[in-house]
Amino acid sequence: MILIDGKKAAAELREELKKEISDLKDKTNKVPGLTVILIGELAPSKIYVKNKEKLAIEVGLKSKVIRYPDTVEEKTILDKIEELNKDESVSGILVQLPLPKHIDKQKVIEAISPDKDVDGFHPINVGNLSSGYESTIPCTPLGCYLLIKKFEKNLTGKKAVIVGRSNLNGKPMTQLLLKENCTVTITHS
Description:
- The chain is an alpha/beta fold.
- It has two domains: about 110 residues, 3-Layer(aba) Sandwich (Rossmann fold), CATH 3.40.50.10860; about 50 residues, NAD(P)-binding Rossmann-like Domain (Rossmann fold, 3-Layer(aba) Sandwich).
- Helix content is about 50%, strand content about 15%.
- The chain is built from seven helices and five strands; from the N terminus they run αβαβαβαααβαβ.
- It has a three-stranded parallel β-sheet with strand order 2-1-3, sandwiched between helices. Strands 4-5 form a two-stranded parallel sheet.
- The protein is globular.
């Protein structure tokens, strides 16, 4: 059995990201950045966004948070996403979920350019991941995958059990492991 030190692995990954971002800045003379849209005052969402902003700055990214009250109209959000899609200084867009009930989550996800969709939720990114093509991958499955690969280079023939089949975690994790020739079992209620 392997005991994995997740905090140590995360610190190492942050250092790798700092170097990659620094190298990219040197090559292109541009600073990549993340723009987050936060709607409402849900405490967990505010914490997640604060942590994302802190980490983005730590690794050398530009970070911007656009805040709206939970009464904002859907059209306002869609217009802002369209503006960010066209803005060449914006490298990535993330709309913090969950959204208020009056805003159609799928419309919002589909409005984000697949190239700027840092969550990997756009149908094109989901399809590319499912087909084994290069894609933006949701962060939790990607983090788990990188952690596994750090300690086990060859996953061919290994058996994996994924608990849950959510679009956010379970399905993407399954796709990543299938691409590595794992035998995957998915459990769900």
